[in-house]
Amino acid sequence: MMHPIYNYPEGLSAHEADSKSHNAHRTQTNNAHLAFLPSPTKPDSLERVQPIVVHNKQNATSRIIFESPDIRFGLWECPPESQLWSIENTIGPAPVIALPWTAVVIDRNNRSRSLMDPNSVAYYCPNELYKRQLASTKGDLCGFVSPSLPLLTTILEEAGLDTTNNSTPFKVGPAVSWATAAHHKLARLITDNNPPPDLVTESVLIEIARETILAAASNSRRKPRQYRSGSTARAHTDIANRTREVLARSVSDTAAEQVRLEDLSRQVHVSTYHLCRIFKQQTGESIAQHYLRLRLRTAAARLAWSDHTITSIAHDFGFANHAHFTTAWKAEFGYPPSALRSTDMCFNDRARN
User: Fold this and answer.
1) How far apart are the first and last CA of the chain?
2) CATH code, 235
3) Coil, helix or strand for 232?
4) Is 252 helix (H, G, I), strand (E, B) or coil?
5) One-character DSSP codes across 105-137
6) Which residue segment(s) compose the domain that 253 sits in?
7) pLDDT tens per residue across span 213-222
8) pLDDT tens digits along 302-321
């Protein structure tokens, strides 16, 4: 998932860095190999843009690939062998919205343990402390956007949320399929040195921040079921969380294992009937819908970052054929999967409706 260690260019203070980025910046093409990108087209020889900021710490890498006065966009990789898995981590001085590519468990100062996967979005306040636990063989991969405090305040006001703490009142929210596909497409274009105009890039990133926060705000207002017993409430929350974790571990960036409901219920120690009922009550969606979206959103990375055929991606993620995958994809994203590669349709307003 993500937890970018946000840093300014070496030797610059925050104020100096911001003044140097008064206009949107990108650097020139360089043979910088972003090794962590899933299934790149040419894994042995990639031409990528040299990121504006590259920060390496404990064998993990945070790369800022676009910045403007209002928003920054970056990619994060923390491989399984990094020492960051065993120590406390710190988000930098800016708020961060993380869009996970892999599953990872985030423990926020021993108070809130959350499984993050491509069906979720993580929100971090400036200088927040957290620990991570491994849930994927790929480690922790994600894209992230970091809005300026004025932009964040504007979005929070639109969502009817408190603006006094320079952060969102929630730590986790649901993924927005439009944002999932758009940020993969945008990152691929930028790292291939074929970026859209800065105006387009910045507007897409601002919309990603806006739509994810609005979705999280709406989700936070969903009224949970009232339980007579606190222990029952905790047990049901645990069942839903364990179910999400089993499903997340069954889907990697390259394929999805077949999961049967009876096997799932056995792993979380509850009957299939009660599992389906409890999961829907806790999450607002059925297990089938959650699993479908998880496969589709994970497949978005493969579509954006590889040249694998749509048919092979469809089979890898558990769809019967190209047509089955295309129908499911179009219902979720609003356009056919081929359009993610061949056009900029995913940036359009129609794709968000």
Assistant:
1) 26
2) 1.10.10.60
3) helix
4) coil
5) EEEETTTEEEEE-TTEEEEE-TT-EEEEEE-ST
6) 230-352
7) 999 999 988 7
8) 999 999 999 999 999 999 99
